[in-house]
Specification:
Layout lengths: L4 E3 L4 E2 L2 E2 L5 E6 L3 E6 L4 E6 L13 E7 L6 E6 L3 E6 L4 E5 L14 E6 L6 E6 L3 E6 L4 E7 L10 E9 L6 E6 L3 E6 L4 E5 L14 E6 L6 E6 L3 E6 L4 E5 L14 E6 L6 E6 L3 E6 L4 E5 L14 E6 L6 E6 L3 E3 L2 E3 L2 E6 L5 E5 L14 E6 L3 E2 L3 E2 L5 E5 L6 E6 L7 E6 L5 E7 L4 E3 L6 E9 L2 E10 L1
Antiparallel strand pairs: 1-36, 2-35, 3-34, 4-5, 5-6, 6-7, 8-9, 9-10, 10-11, 12-13, 13-14, 14-15, 16-17, 17-18, 18-19, 20-21, 21-22, 22-23, 24-25, 25-26, 26-27, 28-31, 29-30, 31-32, 32-33, 36-37, 37-40, 38-39, 38-41, 41-42
Length: 471
């Protein structure tokens, strides 16, 4: 008999709604999501087939947020197609998920289901995860890359073999922003100049050609670029005057220029409006205007534009009447045959502390505890059950844990004939309750694989809790 002895003084979990917390960053991978809370804690949900949630669970997906590590404090994060990157408050670089092309930077191609530190440097400031590669900037302004390099997207001068550890891109030390698309990369320097490289078959590099570029290539002589966002086969950027530019593939209207014609140079699609934020996804894009209204355009087959329908739009279309949008993030794209994946969106508003979501939800990527798509943005419906509080010490043993069918409860120094129990799922819903004696078994064979919380009470007071893993 294997006992897992945990003390309630260390692990008393209570339920909190995401709407009661502030969020500082949201990131959409292809079929999963990660989010950074204002207290620097990191949560993930959605597809976990390649360990991209970083929760070390065998479950292939989670439709509710999971706290990755209660002891870590994160500064910034990035979700790629099948892997994730993060920088902690101490400046260290971490990665997890699929690693078939060396995109987590661990020096090998072994997948990691938990965050692992990349190197020992403590001066990382920016990260961006792409389809199968990764980029990061240090505080000295140098740019580093690793992962897939088949079409020169690492920018190191030649296409070819994957790179499994961070390698410096050129010698420049004035990089400010970086954004990875499907096979192209955008970069911006401190002087406001715009650069791009990688695959250029659809003109997504933007240098007026369709020839791949193996090193960072200057896009126009303008030095008034403010922000950049690379989509799957297209690119977008905002200038300091608030104008939006886009270029690349346009088969779904993702350039927003009111055509379906691809462009190999930046095209102004701002319609004389002032824009402050932009996010390019798999085949669609969003932008926020200076009045905090949200607009979307491009492919909308899963309702990811949040317009209440699945209609494709070839120019910016207002999403709703809200004037309080703070940030928006469109899902990264990944292609399998003729099918393109990455069809959900996350957003934040200024008058709410919750996460807003829309689009596809077949792997739980919206995080609302269901598998239901949404064609409109829904806010404040995501919950989690993973917060630590203190309580009086009480030893509880639950075995086996993890379990497939049932588990036995043992309470040390038990002075109770019976106690009440509640078994709660990861979205805070009690799915089983009753009374239990010491050494009784609780059957969970009919429940889905995942994480559950067992709460024991006597006379209404919590006397112990334990996380239960069913697999």
């Amino acid at each position: 008999m294997k006992k897992l002895l945990l003390f309630a003084s260390l692990f008393l979990f209570q339920l909190f709604s995401f709407s009661q917390q502030n969020w500082s960053q949201i990131e959409c991978g292809t079929e999963f999501s990660i989010a950074l809370r204002s207290d620097s804690l990191l949560f993930s949900w959605g597809n976990n087939a390649n360990g991209q949630l970083g929760n070390n669970l065998a479950t292939p997906a989670s439709n509710s947020p999971y706290l990755i590590d209660t002891n870590s404090k994160w500064r910034t994060i990035s979700a790629g197609s099948f892997h994730s990157l993060g920088i902690k408050n101490d400046g260290t670089l971490w990665a997890w998920g699929f690693n078939g092309n060396g995109q987590i930077g661990s020096g090998n191609k072994i997948q990691s289901n938990i965050p692992i530190q990349i190197g020992t440097d403590t001066d990382w400031t920016h990260v961006d995860a792409g389809l199968a590669n990764s980029f990061a900037i240090k505080n000295n302004g140098t740019l580093w890359a690793w992962g897939l390099n088949f079409q020169g997207q690492l920018g190191i001068g030649t296409p070819g073999a994957d790179t499994t550890s961070p390698i410096q891109v050129g010698t420049d030390s004035d990089w400010k922003q970086i954004s990875c698309g499907g096979f192209q990369v955008l970069g911006m320097k401190t002087n406001g100049s715009l650069w791009a490289w990688g695959y250029n078959g659809e003109g997504q590099v933007g240098d007026t050609s369709n020839i791949d570029k193996y090193i960072p290539t200057l896009i126009s002589s303008d030095t008034n670029w403010k922000s950049i966002s690379a989509g799957y086969q297209f690119s977008t950027a905002i200038k300091t005057n608030g104008s939006i530019y886009s270029w690349g593939f346009n088969g779904n209207g993702q350039l927003g220029d009111n055509t379906l014609v691809s462009k190999n140079y930046p095209v102004d699609v701002s319609a004389a409006e002032m824009w402050i934020d932009i996010s390019a996804g798999s085949s669609f894009a969003f932008a926020i205007k200076s009045d905090s209204t949200l607009y979307g355009w491009g492919y909308n087959g899963s309702g990811q534009l949040g317009t209440g329908n699945t209609t494709q739009y070839i120019k910016p279309r207002i999403v709703d009447n809200s004037t309080n949008w703070l940030s928006i993030n469109a899902a990264d794209g990944a292609q399998s045959g003729t099918a393109l994946f990455g069809l959900h969106t996350l957003g934040l508003k200024t008058n709410t502390t919750g996460i807003c979501f829309s689009g596809a939800n077949y792997t739980g990527q919206l995080g609302d505890g269901t598998a239901n798509n949404s064609t409109v943005f829904i806010c404040n419906q995501i919950t989690t059950a993973l917060e630590e509080l203190s309580n009086e010490e009480l030893a509880i043993t639950v075995y086996p844990n993890p379990t497939r069918d049932n588990f036995t409860i043992e309470i040390a120094e038990n002075n109770f004939e019976t106690v009440n129990y509640n078994l709660v799922n990861s979205i805070g819903k009690t799915i089983k309750s009753g009374k239990v004696n010491n050494f009784d078994k609780i059957d969970i064979s009919s429940f889905s694989d995942g994480l559950y919380l067992l709460i024991l009470k006597n006379n209404g007071n919590v006397i112990g809790t334990e996380r239960i893993i069913k697999n």
